[in-house]
Specification:
The chain has 16 helices and 33 strands. 47% of the residues are buried.
Length: 723
Amino acid sequence: MRPRLRILCTLTLLACLLTGGPVPAGAGTADAPPPTPGTTSTCPANCWSSSAPRDSTRRAARGRSPLLSAEFDRFLSAFGVSAAGANAGDGRTYRLHFDRADDLRATREALRRDPNVEFAEPNYLLSVSRTPNDANYRDQWAPGRIGADRAWDITVGSPVTIAMLDTGISRTHPDLAGRVVAGRDFVNGDDDASDDNGHGTFTAGIVGASGDNTVGVAGISWQAKLLPVKILDQDGRGPVSAFAQGIRWAVDQKAQIVNVSAGIPVPSQTMESAVAYAIGQNVAVVAASGNQPDGVQNYPAAYPNVIAVSASNRDDRVAEFSSYGSHVWIAAPGQEIISTYYRDADTIAVLSGTSASAPFVSGTIALMLSQRGDLTPRAIREILRATAVDLPPDGLDPRAGYGRLDTFHSVILASDPRPTLPAGAIDPPSGKTTDPFIFTAGGFEPNEPVAVWLTGADGTYRFYRNQPVYANADGTVRVSLSNGEPLPAGERQQVTAYGEAFNPANPQARRVATATFTVTMPVNTQAFSRVAPPGGADAPAYFQQTGHTLGGPFLRYWQQHGGLPVFGYPISEEFTEVSPSDGKPYTVQYFERNRFELHPENAGTEFEVLLGLLGSNLTTGRSFPPAPAPFESTEARVYFPETRHSLSGEFLQYWQRNGGLPIFGYPISEPFNEISPTDGKTYLVQYFERNRFELHPENQPPYNVLLGLLGADYARQRQYLGP
């Protein structure tokens, strides 16, 4: 069989032919941009040139460039090719030139259908994302990191009003000129909201400094309206009353976003009430988490439904100075940030802090609202959560929240793009929550990166980032929609696939395919239904109290490692579940206090049955202060450097008597008082990787320490059990 050779076409076709040998290489100049589907295009006259050794080429008719053979020449002529030459340096890839092409897509498809053609694809022009010409943009590392430069290919914003609760804004700064609207000073009680500190002008520039105006820096939303609400004086301090007045006034002035780069470490009912008023009026409230990494919550960042922002650095890590806690929603650049500034005169400055991080999120929300103005604060939070780039450690954590801000994909999801391609297909059309749903859609550009996400009926999103999605050589996308987290049962889901390739000749042209499907009730819920007592001599053990059986390796493990006091009754039968840790299916069984997972590859060892990390799973997002010094073990206290926590007293005695590390894992908290979800009373508790200890001093040992019903709690979280 003759070798298969490839052809690169100047009017954006790449094909592979069976020919007798290589075609001499040609050197090309600038190519035409990729055509918009359904349009016609012609190639510039200077888009191709060629040179080749005299003894291996011939001049083709009509000025066609050197080709190897008449057979090859005739083949290309059938497609209207006027010139061809090897162009990719591999001796098999060819670039074709057309004098004209009435339908480039049809020509490309005709080449693909030919049995001698391996593939055909556009000969794209490479280009950078939009790069503003602002004088100091080269010093701005953050916009490129969060994908703002790619988002500007979609939108540079609209007149969305952002209230900046800060030290005021300099109206004379050339990078903010014409963008600052009349504000209010709630420190001095007048209408002069000019900046006498510099901080407010700095945060305003991050949100909305004019981009592509040759001056200073580029903000995130170039068309936003900046509403200065001065709540801090020249020293950067201000009373809660000024904050409360300011945020209510801003909402009444029709602000759509409130940015607060300030806070206090104690809660205030006055402040909380004002925040609730804003959110109740469908205003998004964004607040800096603070600059003290001590685990102390700052307000208003820690109030419900506020988007609390921590700081990330150039290395995509949370900055060491950033405050943390379970309230943190997202991280954004906050270290070595350059922006507009005012100190005796308008200038620029480089500063660090979560005060810089919050405006990146506010500017992103402004871009989102420019695409869809009816987004609610809840929808905004959901989109930011779904698109956030996970930072170490994996998953939701108190330092980065759901991860680092991704402006580009947040804008895409917010745009709620309508389909422009034929509907995709779901296989199977519906099924159980753990089924591997496969989505397939065509019409994308070959090898195009594609953003894929699910939109639930309840307005939640699931964005597929862990496995980057690309169209294959024929423009088809095929992606699994299942992962370790089951899909909600009984809800209608819409999957959207959005082609990310940007066409500068037609910036608004996007390739979008959608499909909808409904997930049936998970088979896993059936495993939690009571069963009848089994019969026969070899029947498994049956527990009338919960109506479930227990047998095989799970029964042996239960009997050998504590039985009823440690694990409780079984609350399910055995069933197959996808592990949240590694995404693999395992045979599992739930108990009141834990979950057993069968590993037959470890049969005959102590690791044949493994316990779930339910203590860790159920405390995801909570922040537990580390153990106090000394950071070493003593006679009365064991210190675990693996988790930076200690174990002592009754909890240590119980841990040692009932299995220790294999059964309970490391401690992940120190003892603290917590209200029990079972009886509403307060108990001293301590969390471990696999369980929770609860102290009952009114009971005699061994019942002075009781274990949490974490198996039942986790089953409810996974929707296997009702409330």
